[in-house]
Amino acid sequence: xxxxxxxDETRRWIGAALGLAVVVAGLAVLLVPAQSWAQGCSMCATxxxxxxxxxxxxxxxxxMFLMVxxxxxxxxxxxxxxxxYRRSRTRQLSLHVLEAEREGAS
Length: 106
Description:
By secondary structure, this protein is an all-alpha fold. 88% of the residues lie in helices and 0% in strands.
């Protein structure tokens, strides 16, 4: 009984600490001036605003590549893990059916 009470108390403390951390982070975001959010790096502001410059287009494409790659890698890995899990699950179910048929036939 004491262990269960201690676990519940620990969970309450962890929940309170996480809640406080979220509130502090939210306040920190709200207190940052709006002008600082609107500023970009100086290279993006000057270099990429040049209309149809091929270097600017290549720079934009490389930024998109760098932004997409982590999502592509994580998505591919997650999809492969999910596919392997589902594949093994159907094989396990078919093996259980075959074992049940053998036991029933004997």
